Amino acid sequence: MITQTTTSPDAEPAQRTPLVVRTRSELRDAQMRWAIAGPLEPGGPDAAPGQRAVVMTMGALHDGHLELVRRAREEAGPNGQVVVTIFVNPLQFGAGEDLETYPRDLDGDVAKLAGVGADVVFAPTPDVVYPDGDPVVRVSAGRIGEVLEGEHRPGHLDGVLTVVLKLMHLVRPDVALFGEKDAQQLLAVRRMVRDLEVSVEVVGVPTVREADGLALSSRNAYLSAGERERALALSRALAAGAAAADRGAAGVTNAARQVLDEAEGVVVDYLALVDPVTVDAVADDFSGSALLLVAARVGSTRLIDNQAVEVSPDQR
Ligand code: PAF
Prior knowledge:
Number of domains: 2
Bound molecules: pantoate
Order of helices and strands: EHEHEHEHHHEHEHHEEE
Distance between the termini: 66 Å
Strand order of the largest sheet: 1-4-3-2-5-6
């Protein structure tokens, strides 16, 4: 069944309520309809056809996701098509993680997407994505999937890449947009696209933060007021690290580590300054572009955050 749009199909793209499709054939119909009806859209019959842009999500949408969709609209152009996928992918959850309790509210998510530029929401069930059950052949993130997140969530990035590649095949986008907050995921997706010759442009979109610095995340909803306050240690640590950029790589990590050591109720999984392409930890005498990554548990909620740092040699 295709849930019909509540606004006219020739409304400005940014005003539209997206069409919700649940199956592969509904998605194909929506793509065909776009291919045929595209020239009727605001760019006019002679305008360039535009691109298809995808934003992949697990739902529980927040302003960070909406920013991705706005950027996708820009990438797609007025005659393009913006597809948002909403799918809680079982493959990327480990034993004891929050697969069962992960917030699911399709109607609420679709309402949030009204007016931000999404044309289609593809919200499949697991049997649509994995019609033969758990896939036998999967994508491996290789070395990238074994460090940092991989040490704490074995197999997580393999599960992410497997579903991302499947969704790319199903949606057939020209451009795929991912948030920079999940930095290791973004690096792994870029690497998969390059290593496996997937003809999709990957665009990273800067992290959206609350006014006090907390990076937006669907898992912030799990935090009590006290935990939310304690969670600010992550962004504070990253800011302290970035402020120490002229003290060399060791100075950056030491400054960030000090903030985390002093924070109460924050259990650090890792803090690492890494090469932004390989995710390898940089040497103490490194200078250049690096990524400072942190993962920590606040109560039972696991949070991640990161910050780009331009490290210069310690002059002191
Ligand atoms: O970042 C996420 O929400 C997920 O890992 C993704 C990319 C949608 C794959 O399930």
